[in-house]
Write a structure and sequence with these properties.
The chain is of the alpha/beta class. The protein has 9 helices and 9 strands. An 8-stranded parallel barrel has the order 1-2-3-5-6-7-8-9, surrounded by 6 helices. α6 packs across α7 and α7 runs parallel beside α8.
């Protein structure tokens, strides 16, 4: 099971240099990837509920230049709030500047206020997400000439990635699992126990997602809880068969310390 870090992006006073330093530390400590959340216009302050002070795609391009090995991804980008052709170009560009390390993690979103704020339709966000993923994949593979779009075969999409940018689908619903089986390379559960994860992963397989890797998110956000508790949960996730586990280490104050503490504890297992 690969361990990843969801970087802290919830503080408007945190300098970008802090994210760079934490990204470098995560790479040095052996974590497989670094991830950023996304909220465009939340209805209250950024913090434990809403992450995404720094726009994730722009920030990941910056972090790509500061790292060499780690995967760079969004966990997760609210896709129906984005224009899909622009997003396809941003994702392809990120793949180029990172040497193929970018993963486009997407979800449908859950905060209706954000949809109203940007003029997007909350009720049709699932269908919009699926349609956008189809279009992005077509643009990344040059296979869109005969598709019913407002552009035609004269349209030139570049840079075309060497391989289609991997897509991670976030969410626990049947709709999310169907989307992952149809269009995803990876699936990420949120807020589930390892036992619940197994049930949802089995459902993903039933829906045809045999080739989709299955992962989860967890957190350690308070030094009052011993690292051994997190170690126990990591072992439970491993036994459950998660391919990837993305960990958030809480508020930026103490984030790096907790990340180092876990890495040290894992070395002694």
């Amino acid at each position: 099971m690969r361990l990843h870090v969801v970087l802290p992006d919830e503080s408007a006073t945190m300098p970008m240099s802090t994210l760079v330093e934490l990204a470098r530390q995560a790479e040095e400590l052996g974590f497989a990837g670094i991830w950023l959340p996304d909220h465009l216009l939340p209805p209250s302050d950024y913090g434990p509920v809403y992450g995404g002070v720094y726009e994730p795609l722009t920030t990941l391009a910056y972090l790509a230049a500061a790292t060499n090995r780690v995967v760079l991804g969004t966990s997760v980008l609210i896709l129906p709030l984005r224009e899909p052709i622009l997003l396809a170009k941003q994702a392809a560009t990120l793949a180029h500047v990172s040497g193929g390390r970018f993963i486009l993690g997407v979800g449908t979103g859950w905060e209706s206020y954000e949809f109203d704020a940007v003029g997007a339709d909350f009720a049709t966000r699932g269908a919009a997400t699926t349609a956008a993923l189809h279009l992005i994949r077509q643009l990344h593979t040059g296979s869109y000439a005969d598709e019913p779009h407002t552009f035609d075969a004269r349209a030139v999409f570049q840079p075309e990635p060497e391989t289609p940018v991997p897509v991670l689908i976030g969410g626990n619903s049947d709709a999310a699992l169907r989307r992952a089986a149809l269009l995803g390379d990876m699936w990420q559960s949120v807020g589930l126990t390892p036992t619940e994860f197994v049930a949802r992963r089995n459902r993903l397989r039933e829906l045809g997602g045999d080739a989709v890797s299955a992962g989860a998110r967890d957190s350690w956000d308070d030094n009052a809880h011993p690292v051994d508790d997190l170690i126990d949960r990591i072992q439970e996730w491993n036994k459950a068969g998660a391919d990837d586990l993305a960990l958030h280490f809480g508020p930026v104050d103490g984030f790096g310390e907790r990340m180092h503490t876990l890495a040290a504890a894992l070395r002694h297992l």
